[in-house]
Design brief:
This protein is an all-alpha fold.
């Protein structure tokens, strides 16, 4: 192995070890991954490529046993090796219906979104985790919320029953108060017409009798 390749391999190992330390920091909550990495490097141990690769592999296996997420990711990578790192042949053979100019136009049109998305992700990372007391308060309120939900359901059923009774009452009032009153007025009008006819008939008969008496006298 030449000096350049050995240096490149050591740099790659340093980068891998640093990434592993950062991953361990996010999972286990170490105080400072950089200090932890410097402490590991400063110890008197064998720093050959083989030893460091074996150490990284042991630590990764240990982390996969402690974290179900890492274990699932490793299983997914073992089942689909090209999922996270597709080969160059796969990228070259991927069909595209767009020309290079059209692809460049699309990329340039969405270029302002990249820093905006990066800043939004950074702001999300800087957000503080809510206090556990808030979660505990919400959990303690769950029984009261369940009772309120039951009360609301009961009130909704009662309101629905009252609405149905109101509809029946309005229908009954319309049938008796409006339609019934209209029928009553119609019946009275018919009776009034009959009475008027009888009065006119009697008046006519009376006039005829009076006229006959005049002729006879």
């Amino acid at each position: 192995m030449t000096q350049a390749s050995a240096t490149s391999a050591l740099d790659m190992l340093d980068d891998l070890q640093y990434r592993l330390q950062r991953l361990e920091f996010f999972l286990s909550g170490s105080d400072d991954p950089q200090k932890a990495l410097e402490a590991v490097i400063s110890k008197d141990r064998d720093h050959t490529i083989t030893a460091r690769l074996a150490g990284l592999e042991r630590k990764l296996n240990s982390m996969s046993e402690q974290s179900p997420i890492i274990h699932d990711l490793l299983q997914l990578q073992a089942a689909h090796p090209t999922l996270f790192h597709p080969s160059k042949s796969d990228l070259d053979t991927t069909p595209s219906i767009l020309s290079k100019e059209e692809i460049l136009t699309i990329v340039n049109a969405h270029a302002p979104l990249y820093p905006l998305t990066a800043s939004q992700l950074t702001s999300i990372g800087d957000m503080s985790i809510p206090s556990s007391s808030l979660s505990a308060t919400l959990i303690s309120l769950q029984p009261r919320l369940a009772k309120l939900q039951q009360l609301q359901d009961a009130q909704a059923k009662e309101i629905a029953a009252l609405r149905a009774r109101s509809v029946k009452a309005v229908q009954r009032w319309y049938e008796l108060g409006v339609l019934g009153q209209g029928e009553c007025w119609a019946e009275w009008e018919v009776r009034m017409e009959d009475c008027e006819k009888k009065v006119r008939r009697r008046e006519g008969e009376k006039r005829e009798v009076e006229e006959e008496g005049r002729y006879l006298s």
